Amino acid sequence: MLTTADFLKYTQWSGIATLVFAALAIIAFLFKWGFRYRLVGTTGFMLVLTTGLFALSLFPLSRTVIPGAVKYTLVYDNGANQAVISLSPKITPEEVEATLLQASSNLYSFGRSGRSEDDKLTIRARTFIHPEPGLTIPLYLGEIKRSLANREDPQVSLDIYPDKFAQLPQPKA
User: Fold this and answer.
1) Which residues does 160 contact at the CB level (< 8 Å), separation at least 6?
2) Any transmembrane segments, and where (predicted)?
3) What pLDDT digit, counting tens, does each position of 125-158 carry?
4) For the whole model, what pTM was predicted?
5) Residue 48 CB: number of other CB atoms within 10 A?
6) 3-class DSSP state of 13
7) pLDDT tens digits, one per residue of 31-59
8) Is residue 49 packed enough to be buried (19+ CB in 10 Å), middle (13-18) or exposed (0-12)?
9) Are 74 and 107 in contact (CB under 8 A)?
10) How far is CA 140 from CA 44, 123, 126, in A?
11) Residue 101's pLDDT is what?
12) What are phi and psi of 86, to 5 degrees?
């Protein structure tokens, strides 16, 4: 996987190419070459490409991997301070805890602008149960609250609801 250092190196090369195309465009205008406007377009494209590579060099693209976490699906995210993930009904409390920790790390972003009373990102984990045919009920298994401002939040609040696990379908022996 590409690292931020790789993107910084690509940014430098792209920046050099942008300057070369800009110089060629200026020369083309001075000598009234027929393709001078194409060079302006190419220079603009290179500028956008260089800016994008620079942005990728600032923030890593990697996801956090927590041992014991299972695959989850993000089903709701208001972009500010609330999110909901969906899990399989065949899950243990330990897996819910690890998955919530992983989701809280992966969903953290500097762009979240929640202004709730405590400035916390709240992620709730849910699954669905089917107590009878034709009836589906969402079952919340836990939630985690973390700071919106601090990536390395030391005061993460994690709540697992053990009473809800008793309602999950039990595997047949």
Assistant:
1) 93, 96, 97, 141, 142
2) 12-31, 43-61
3) 999 998 889 999 999 999 999 888 777 778 889 9
4) 0.66
5) 10
6) helix
7) 999 999 999 999 999 999 999 999 988 87
8) middle
9) yes
10) 50, 11, 4
11) 92
12) -110, 140
- Burial class of 87 by CB neighbour count within 10 A (0 to 12, 13 to 18, 19+): buried
- Write out the two tokens for 22: 């800009």
Quote the strand ranges of the chain, DSSP E.
73-77, 82-86, 120-132, 135-147, 157-160
Range 68-80 burial, b when 16+ CB lie within 10 A, else e: ebeebeeeeeeee
3-state secondary structure of 138: strand
For residue 64, what are the contacts with CB-CB under 8 A and spacing of at least 6? 102, 105, 106
pLDDT in tens, 60-100: 666 778 899 999 999 998 878 899 999 999 999 999 999 99
pLDDT of amino acid 49: 97
